[in-house]
Amino acid sequence: MQTRKQKMKKSKKMTNCFVTKKYSQFKKTKGNRPISLSHVAKIKKAIAHKDLKLPILVTKNMDIRDGHHTFQARKDLGLEIYYIVLDSNDAFDMALLNSNRSGWNYNDYLNFFCTYQRKDYMILKSKVKEYEMPVQEAVAIFNNQVRLKSSTMDDFKEGRFKIPASGLIAFDRIAEEMKYINNVLGDSKNLKRGFIRAYLVADKCPKWDFARFKAAMKSKGAKLLGAISTEDYISRFQNIFNTGLAPEKRIRLSRFFEDKEYETQEEQVIH
pLDDT value at position 189? Predict the structure, then answer.
């Protein structure tokens, strides 16, 4: 059986870790998320307990690709900076790096690519702001998906998000319909994830007719108040829509959702 030392001898040295206190040579990468003082404080506390001397990642131009908070913490404490120089100078590597862990949230990715003037991301950001909805749900609408596929989110995080040819028209139609419902209720809490997902399911149902639902809301709209989950909204959409309809004309939205029939519609272009 090989000893640990023998195993290490067979290992190949790939990178060199450098050390310096010349803080001014490091540069903050354009588009990186803002420094969180609370996160810096946590790192300082961890260093005080035990300094693991974890290295940050930089480009050959000394742009920090990973470890902005670690850099700030060590600089504040007057400590040396341990760093590894990456082979690539590609700014988008930072987004790729963070896509493989939980460092960034969806707003961080959106802001990052907007900083680099990515048109589709800039349009997405404007729609998120206009309709006050979560980034994930806006991406879902553009991609005609009730629940985002992992491949769709990978594309978003790695800079490959694209708006389909008919995407803007379709997005505005769906968003305006949801906004109308929200305004009728006078409850800003309704334009949240559960509400949006439920409406996307309804919109995919062949029997769904927004004009019909809009008319029924005049007398039954209050039924939506208090709903929280996607399932709850779907059930209430169904009850409101079916008001006064003969059995053969009623919509079975809950069954449509439970059986995931909406998935058969997701390969089609939203209209």
Answer: 54
Residue-range domains of the chain with CATH: 4-91 (3.90.1530.10), 108-157 (no CATH), 167-264 (no CATH)
pLDDT band at 137 (very low <50, low <70, confident <90, very high): very high
Residue type present at position 224: L
In one-letter notation, the amino acid at residue 51 is D
Report the relative pairing of strands 63-66 and 27-28 from DSSP bridges: parallel
The whole-angstrom separation of Cα 144 and Cα 139 is 9
Residue 212's Cβ-count burial label (10 Å; 0-12, 13-18, 19+) is middle
pTM: 0.68
Q: Are 241 and 251 in contact (CB under 8 A)?
A: yes
* Residue 204 CB burial class (10 angstroms; 0-12, 13-18, ≥19): buried
Per-position DSSP letters for 49-108, written without gaps between them: H----PPEEE-TT-EEEE-HHHHHHHHHTTPPEEEEE-S---TTHHHHHHHTSSS--HHH
Q: Which residue has the tokens 């600089």?
A: 75
